[in-house]
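Hey, quick one: can you model this chain's 3D structure?
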Amino acid sequence: MYSKEIIHAIGLNHTYEYCIVSRDFKMLEYSKSLWLYCDLKKKNENVLLFDIAPEFIGFETELESLFEGSLKHFSIPLVFKEPEYYVNIHVHASRSSTTLIVLFENITEITKAQQYASQVHNENLLLLQSIEEKNRQLKAFSEEMQGLVKEEVEKNIEKQHMLELQTRHAQMGEMISLITHQWKQPLSVIQTVGTMLKIKQAKGTLHSDILLEKIDDILKQAEYMDQTVNDFQTFFTPSKSRDFFDVRKTIESVLGLIHEDYALENIQISIKGDDAVIVKGYPNEYKQVILSIMQNAKEAFRGQKTPKKYIEITVEKEANKACVDTSLVCIKDNAGGIPKKMIDKIFTQYVSTKKEGSGLGLYIAKSVIEKNMQGALWVESIADNTIFFIRI
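Sure thing. Here's the predicted structure for all 392 residues.
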């Protein structure tokens, strides 16, 4: 009842060309567009199936079985036909078994779609394999880099410790020189008093009241020397924890150690500004930063023909809502300023404006202020003046 509709639907959804073949494999009839898939140049009655479709060569047994009725049909799948067609060839025996119906099913679009899908699938597999390989390489590289970074960090930490140690040794050398200057005056006083006592003793004019007075003088000078040693001992003792300290008093304690040495080089030091500016940090390390900047200024004066050498220190208390103050300390000298080409490098490791400088003092000072005390240390050069700013 619905055979025509079914045949029509099949025709709409499938593209077929056909030919009818006799018992001796001669072409009896064929569709108009069969030439798309077969060589139909020879248009005569002697054209054989094997001439237009050489794919059947080797299938003679199956073709005979169709004629004999022992085989109902067989197919040759996925045959490529020039120039661009893919076909499935289906062979069916007629009802009378005297002819064969050969159908050429065009599956070009389906085949190309499958080929494209297969190609995409293979490309995706290759891409996934490539990604996995890249991830493996990246992981290995990352692990290697982590090891190298860890090694470099450890080297840098060790290097930093060595730099700090070198800077501390350099400062200790400076301090030994300062102690020598600090002790010269009291030693001279003690020597003078001792000589005078010996003279009075020789002349018989040494009275007990004079002796006691001079002994007191000697004890005062010895006490001064003892205090000097104590000050230098605590100077290089690292602060174990962050403590509150008075900025101005801390700076004045440094100036008390160095004023004699600077006076010998005709450098005037003055300090002004706010009192009782209390901050939290590492006071001994802060002292070393002040000393490093002061020593830098003293060395800058050498070789300069400055008629009146001075270092001015200003302490300012800045507004802060926290429980501790924010201090800004300015240390200004007139030692000729810093060349423009050097000012951006002044805190760089191993860079120094002096021929004999190590380039470590200011580098360590900046590290102490900014890394250890979360502050800021910078410099400006205006005409013959150099101004260091310390904010914590």
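One thing worth noting: The first helix runs from residue 3 to 13.
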